[in-house]
Amino acid sequence: MSDVDLGYSLIEPTGPVRGTAVLVAGYTSSYDTFNVLLEPLAENGYRVIGLSQRGQPHSTGPDTVDGYSLAQLGSDIHTFIDALSEKLGDLGHIHLLGHSFGGVVAHEAVAQNPRRFASVTLWNSGPRDFGEGGPAHDALVADGPRGLWVLDRQRMGLDPDIDLAGDMSVIERYYFDRLMTTKPAALLAGAAILRDQIDRTNELATLSREHGIPFLISHGAQDDAWPADWQRDMAIALGADYVVLANAGHSSHGDRPNMAADVLATFWSDATTSTS
Asked: Phi, psi at residue 99, to the nearest 5°?
């Protein structure tokens, strides 16, 4: 890509290729979040690509907020697929998945070029502002990325200063380092996009009907981001498959990786059959 380099993970299927999937990471995340899905999805015949968005760990990105507009983030997905196709050969129609904020970006990518996608999955991702973007943006303006760390820790009832004490667990250190290696401009822009998110479900429904794109809406039963009823209502409006993963939270693929892989492989197989 001309202005940024997007980091990605890739696993080839263990047998014949049934399809290619691009999984777009969420707000404070990276392609690492999808590592637990790579092997089980490859065993189901899928080439799977986890994607870090611009400014996230493993990717480069500009230092100014205006380099992270929603239109640019959506365009990045198409530029990335074009570049990877040149490297690997024709990838065919893509099964696109966006996790959380990645779902907001996936929506934009579909709006820009719906013909490219065999299916779209909005994974723990809802239709409109759920009240978190504003506080996150304010915390970032006041104290930078660590301000966001403190805000999230306080919301969870955890010690916000554990990083200062140097007594973090391995998991806490991973999340802290991931946040601190994300471009501050990307965090600010993402918070503003979430704060200003408007409901574009009707637009998606039109694209689905006009281009025959199957949708899956799925979230964990304990997802604490977008309300479950918002996600369910979005699925109904889209005529989409709707799957709730029991005993799972906002990162339901991390909580229930084998179940998540089964849900996705089944949906992708059905989507391919229905559009062939």
From this structure: -95, 125
Residue pair 47/10 in contact (Cβ under 8 Å)? The answer is yes
pLDDT exceeds 60 at position 275: no
Number of domain units in the chain: 2
Helix axes 70-88, 101-112, angle to 10 degrees: 70
| Two tokens, residue 158 | 């955890």
pLDDT in tens, 22-67: 999 999 999 999 999 999 999 999 999 999 999 999 999 999 999 9
Closest CA to 49 of 58, 180, 235: 58
**In angstroms, rounded to a whole number, what is the distance separating the alpha carbons of residues 185 and 168?**
26
Q: What is the dihedral of CA 10, 13, 17, 19, to 10 degrees?
A: -50
Is residue 180 helix, strand or coil?
Answer: helix
Residue with tokens 């554990």: 162
Domain-embedded: residue 160: yes
**Confidence (pTM):** 0.95
> What is the sign, positive or negative, of the torsion defined by CA atoms of 70, 6, 81, 223?
negative
Range of the domain at 107: 8-128+198-275
